[in-house]
Amino acid sequence: MEDRNAAPRCEFLYVHEDVVEQVNQAMPQEEHLFDLAELFKVFGDSTRIRILYVLFEAEMCVCDIAQLLGMTQSAISHQLQVLKKSKLVKYRREGKTVFYSLADDHVRAILDQGMEHVTE
Amino acid sequence: MEDRNAAPRCEFLYVHEDVVEQVNQAMPQEEHLFDLAELFKVFGDSTRIRILYVLFEAEMCVCDIAQLLGMTQSAISHQLQVLKKSKLVKYRREGKTVFYSLADDHVRAILDQGMEHVTE
DNA sequence: CTTTCATATGAGCATTTGTTCATATATAGT
DNA sequence: ACTATATATGAACAAATGCTCATATGAAAG
């Protein structure tokens, strides 16, 4: 048995050299692929999705979001921190209250694109 | 202390009745929100993202994908089942080999939209 | 029918994740 | 300074996730 890479080795590659080349060329930077996965990971939770849909309608404080979604203030706050870290929402303080809103239109575009796939 | 819902209660709602109404109207069905989160969950892993980017270039068998990505056949196969379950890829058997390819163009549209956000 | 090769799959395990609970911080009012 | 209210945050715990390893399935060739 000869030495081998981490990858298994089938009898032969079905893809030709030029396809391998093509894939390697088209492949985005490893870092971008990682970031992209991280981004989608944030969208991959229904609590966060629901928060974003609420914020589509209006800027809102933590407590109001919690009431609208029937969840605890703590749970919502934790998730808002996740959304904040990913730059999907921004906030504005007014006295004791903190108002959250969508960071930009990309958020909506991404969700719409996904929703199209889901509802078709 | 009076009885209360699952949700906490702040002194008063900042949002007005009509905003609550507006949010409830605009809110997609609970089921769709759940499905949407499930969909993004699938995109939320860099191995699956990389598989999809490889399949953008050409239909490919499990073993070739594994070699291209430097991962085991088992790991790739498991993830392909996840992608298959979500209808993001389809497959075609040819003898012992199984070729996978993208199920439709939505996949690309969703990834592109996300990539735009990441690379800007 | 047995062997071989490509793929699929179940169990096990370490890691990550989302929520709860308790508590800390920040701001305003008294 | 003390209290009350809105929000943030750390620890803990259960549930979900992604990989590995061993093994099963499926198809072609001998």
Describe the protein.
Two copies of one chain form a homodimer. Chain A has 120 residues and is mainly alpha-helical. The first copy, chain A, has a domain at 44-119: Arc Repressor Mutant, subunit A. The first copy, chain A, has six helices and three strands, in the order αααβααββα. Chain A has a three-stranded antiparallel beta sheet. In chain A, helix 4 packs across helix 5 (73-85). The radius of gyration of chain A is 21 Å and the shape is elongated. The model of chain A is unreliable at 1-6 (pLDDT under 50). The interface between A and B is large, with 65 and 64 residues. Chain A binds a DNA duplex (30 and 30 nucleotides) through helix 5.
The helix content of chain A, as a percent range, equals 55-70%
Largest interface: A-B, 65 and 64 residues
- Uncertain residue ranges of chain A: 1-6
| Percentage of β-strand residues of chain A | 5-15%
| Run of helices and strands of chain A | HHHEHHEEH
> In CATH terms, what is the architecture of the domain at 44-119 in chain A?
Orthogonal Bundle
Radius of gyration of chain A: 21 Å
* CATH fold-level name of the domain at 44-119 in chain A: Arc Repressor Mutant, subunit A
Shape of chain A: elongated
- Class from helix and strand fractions of chain A: mainly alpha
Tally the helices of chain A: 6
Biggest sheet features of chain A:
3 strands, antiparallel
Please name the fourth-level CATH homologous superfamily of the domain at 44-119 in chain A: Winged helix-like DNA-binding domain superfamily/Winged helix DNA-binding domain
By oligomeric state, this entry counts as homodimer
Q: What is the CA-CA span between the terminal residues of chain A?
A: 51 Å
Looking across the biggest beta sheet of chain A, what order are the strands in?
1-3-2
